[in-house]
Amino acid sequence: MDLLSQIFVEPFALMVEMPDLLVQTLWEGFVSGVLYALIALGFVLIFKASGVFNFAQGIMVVFSALTLVGFYAMGVPAILALVLAIGVMFVLAWTVERVVLRPLVNQPDIILFMATFGLTYFLIGFGELVFGGEPKQMITDELFLPTGATEFDLGGGYVRIQHLDVAAAVIASIMIAVLGVFFSKTRIGRALRAVADSHKAALSVGISLNQIWVIVWFAAGVVALVTGIMWGARSDVSFALQIIALKALPVLILGGFTSIPGAIVGGLIIGLGEKIGEFYWGPVVGGGIETWFAYVIALIFLLFRPQGLFGEKIIERV
Q: Which ranges does the record mark as transmembrane (predicted)?
């Protein structure tokens, strides 16, 4: 009976008794969810263009952030370093299209997927060679990102809002909205959907796979850079960030691999769910809910709705 009380009664009673802690938990979960959605957006863009899960998106987050910090360490002003880092991501997109994707047009999806594995380990090795393996500090102040926090009273307690988290949520939300409109309402967006449906059909109507892939990989690279800045500002820039980026996989399973709104909803479900679960139900299971909650939810969705909340059902005639 005590266990049932700890699971079904005490957490909800605590939410009512201490609303300040509930609001604090919800805010932290919302910020994490928006950043998860931003990470997932990079995966969605490339999946929509090639039908392949880009395993390299995680290391692109790390590599882009290390590039930014590396340019600044060389004496380049912060804003110029940001511009140069964006330029590096364009060069990376162009190189991936020329060296990796172009020779693999119309190859099975598993071939393209394995190519992203190779790209991942190349970027890890190249990144360690150029930047070293030790963690770096993100240039938060130099990029004019806000610091400090604001506290306000709620229900007899205090809610603390980090200014950096507010900036991260706003910037990520704007980027998600802009990219969502760009790829759903523009000519490039329509071409992207055509490429996702069939490479051969897209080529037959004059759509350039080469241009589409460069654009999409560049957009994913910019998303990776923004993600690396925000996550790096909250901790450090290190190769461990690619593990955080892989949280996008359960987000995509929840929302659907081809859906930008799905990435948003999936990110919020994971972000809010793991924070609430860790704080209110963590003591019951000994903590650590944040490390496995997302993957359990993803497993449940795979069993009952494998296409995700917003994913398209695939019907094959046999």
A: 26-47, 59-90, 110-131, 164-183, 212-232, 244-273, 279-304
Q: What angle, rounded to 10 degrees, do the helices at 209-234 and 57-73 form? A: 70
Residue 207 dihedral angles phi and psi, to the nearest 5°:
-80, 130
Give dist(CA 85, CA 67) in Å, integer: 6
Specify whether the backbone of 206 is left (phi greater than 0), alpha (psi in -120 to 50) or beta: left
> Domain residue spans in the chain?
2-304
Q: Report phi then psi at 314, rounded to 5.
A: -100, 120
Window from 54-63, 99-108, 119-128 with minimum mean pLDDT: 99-108
Name the DSSP class of 157: E
Residue 155, both tokens: 């229900």
Q: Phi first, then psi: give them for residue 235, nearest 5 degrees.
A: -140, -110
Contacts of 289 (CB under 8 A, 6+ apart): 274, 277, 278, 281, 282
pLDDT at 72: 95
With a cut of 80, say whether residue 201 has pLDDT above it. Answer: no
Q: ∠ CA(75), CA(77), CA(82), 5° rounding?
A: 115
pLDDT, tens digit (0-9, with 9 covering 90-100), for 43-91: 888 887 777 788 898 899 999 999 999 999 999 999 999 999 999 999 9
d(CA 163, CA 147): 6
For the structural domain made of 2-304, what CATH number should be given? 1.10.3470
